[in-house]
TrEMBL record:
CDD domains xref list: IgV_1_Necl-2
Residue intervals passing through the bilayer: 375-395
Compartments reported by the entry: Cell membrane; Synapse
Residue ranges of every copy of the Ig-like domain listed in the record: 14-129, 133-228, 233-318
GO BP: cell recognition; detection of stimulus; homophilic cell adhesion via plasma membrane adhesion molecules; susceptibility to natural killer cell mediated cytotoxicity
A UniProt-annotated Pfam family: Ig_3
UniProt name for this protein: Cell adhesion molecule 1
Region entry Disordered, spans: 332-365
PANTHER family: CELL ADHESION MOLECULE 1, IG-LIKE DOMAIN-CONTAINING PROTEIN
InterPro entries: CD80_C2-set, Ig-like_dom, Ig-like_dom_sf, Ig-like_fold, Ig_sub, Ig_sub2, Ig_V-set, Neurexin-like
Source domain of life: Eukaryota
Recorded GO CC terms: neuron projection; plasma membrane; synapse
Length: 442
């Protein structure tokens, strides 16, 4: 009983040991049901500190001890018989024995035992699991550069973790499913490999593909690779000149806008089922035709190609009658309107496949229509203004002939008078005002 070393007890009761042993034997019988020993499992990352806690509810001063997986005593109450200094007492009370184990290694894994010296003794278990984080994920793609529409495969590997990591894939902000394989290495570590197959589009060029490694020992663990996608040219014809209708004798200038990866090396202008007019000037993506002639009607095509493929855009040229020199669109809106509004419907039918030409021509028609509207509005306004001027002159003459004096007096007085009488009284005071009015109307 000297084991118990209860100095406080000895101070209170001279015959302490005897008292204690009697008390404990009696209490133990009763305590089996009511005393309650618990311990929690612990997961800890290798190298960090694990906290093992043995807790007792309603302890009646029974002794608590902690054993390692080989059932060696780590702590007996607050005394550590085991030499391993990595074990340190965190808290010792009658309700808890809490021990910290620092610099945890894989060999520390196992079932730790909390023991309570009751009769029969009670045990609770704390399983320590050591987590080993994976190495940095390795991402590799089968091809560095892929052509649009082709499939590529990206591989991500997470090496040497415990437990096995899981791998997820993101392309931009979209999650994609991969195929995974888990391997156990000789030292009981896990290596996980995941493959992502994807068919690329031109929009994927420059988009990051991210391999995300989920593991309890790491946070935000990922690797990424940017997709590099080749795509055939996108071609668009833009009319630089003229802004309005293409008329005989005028010039035509078209530009071909091209975007592709790699940058297209070749741009060609051709005329479908015909030859481009012999005097047409082609400089890179620009086509320039001077002095348009109706015989140039037809489909002009800009063709661009790169290593991935070839694309084109069409422009349908429709040459309108020339304007006679006296009927310039700026001076005679009516003439412009007639030709612009009547002709385009025919063209739109003729030139059905060319959105370029149709859009261009109808735009010109709409502009002519707008200028006509302006002319009509201008005319109406002019007539109204003229009518009002006439009315003013007629009224002016009328007031001048009647000298205007009396009328002005009444009007002036009425402005600030309550009734007709007051108005006249007020008006009498305002003779100088009436003179001014008279002068104004003459
Ligand atoms: C502790 O882990 C073991 C398996 O290692 C499990 O059987 C037991 O239920 C766990 N105990 C608690 C309290 O979670
Ligand atoms: C030890 O545990 C007791 C009871 O849970 C608590 O009151 C006390 O603050 C703890 N002491 C330390 C140093 O953690
Ligand atoms: C932790 O333990 C390892 C061996 O398991 C040892 O090499 C290392 O020096 C220890 N680190 C510290 C800070 O004690
Ligand atoms: C893409 O696929 C085509 C067949 O669809 C193939 O001819 C071409 O070589 C592939 N390109 C690359 C870069 O793999
Ligand atoms: C248009 O070309 C024809 C021959 O192709 C020619 O006879 C005619 O004079 C030309 N018209 C104009 C306005 O140049
Ligand atoms: C070109 O289009 C104009 C507009 O209608 C038409 O009058 C002319 O006959 C066309 N010329 C050719 C060669 O198709």
């Amino acid at each position: 009983m000297s084991l118990w070393g209860c100095s406080a007890c000895e101070w209170l009761f001279p015959n302490c040991s005897l008292f204690l042993s009697l008390f404990l034997t009696g209490a133990a019988q009763f305590a089996v049901q009511s005393q309650n020993l618990v311990a929690d499992n612990v997961s800890v990352v290798e190298g960090e500190t694990a906290i093992i806690s043995c807790r007792v509810k309603n302890n009646d001063d029974s002794v608590i001890q902690l054993l390692n997986p080989n059932r060696q005593t780590i702590y007996f109450k607050d005394v550590r018989p085991l030499k391993d200094a990595r074990f340190q007492l965190v808290n010792f009370s009658e309700n808890e024995l809490r021990v910290a184990l620092s610099n945890v290694s894989l060999s520390d894994e196992g079932r730790y035992v909390c023991q309570l010296y009751t009769d029969p003794p009670q045990e609770a278990y704390a399983d320590i699991t050591v987590l080993i984080p994976p190495g940095n994920p390795i991402i590799e793609s089968r091809e560095d550069i892929v052509s649009e529409g082709n499939e590529t495969e990206i591989t991500c590997t997470s090496i040497g973790s415990k437990p096995a990591a899981t791998i997820r894939w993101m392309k931009g902000d979209k999650e994609l499913p991969g195929r995974s394989k888990v391997e156990v290495t000789y030292d009981r570590m896990y290596t996980v490999t995941s493959w992502l197959k994807l068919t690329v589009a031109r929009e994927d060029d420059g988009v990051p593909v991210v391999c995300i490694v989920d593991h309890p020992a790491v946070k935000d663990f990922q690797a990424q690779k940017y997709l590099e996608v080749l795509y055939k040219p996108e071609v668009k014809i833009v009319v630089e000149f003229p802004v309005g209708l293409t008329r005989e004798g005028e010039n035509l200038e078209l530009t071909c806008q091209i975007k592709g990866k790699p940058e297209p090396q070749q741009v060609n202008w051709v005329k479908v089922d015909d030859d481009v007019p012999s005097h047409a000037v082609i400089t890179g993506p620009d086509l320039f035709i001077e002095n348009l002639n109706k015989s140039y009607n037809g489909t002009y095509r800009c063709v661009a190609s790169n290593s991935v493929g070839e694309s084109y855009d069409d422009y349908i040229l429709y040459v309108y009658d020339a304007l006679t020199t006296t009927l310039k669109p700026t001076t005679t809106t009516t003439t412009t309107t007639i030709s612009a509004t009547t002709s385009p419907p025919d063209i739109i039918q003729d030139a059905a496949p060319s959105t370029e030409a149709a859009a261009h021509d109808s735009r010109a028609g709409a502009e002519a229509q707008r200028s006509v509207d302006h002319a009509v509005i201008g005319g109406v306004v002019a007539v109204v203004v003229f009518a009002m001027l006439c009315l003013l002159i007629v009224l002016g003459r009328y007031f001048a002939r009647h000298k205007g004096t009396y009328f002005t007096h009444e009007a002036k007085g009425a402005d600030d008078a309550a009734d007709a009488d007051t108005a006249i009284i007020n008006a009498e005071g305002g003779h100088n005002n009436s003179d001014e009015k008279k002068e104004y109307y003459i």
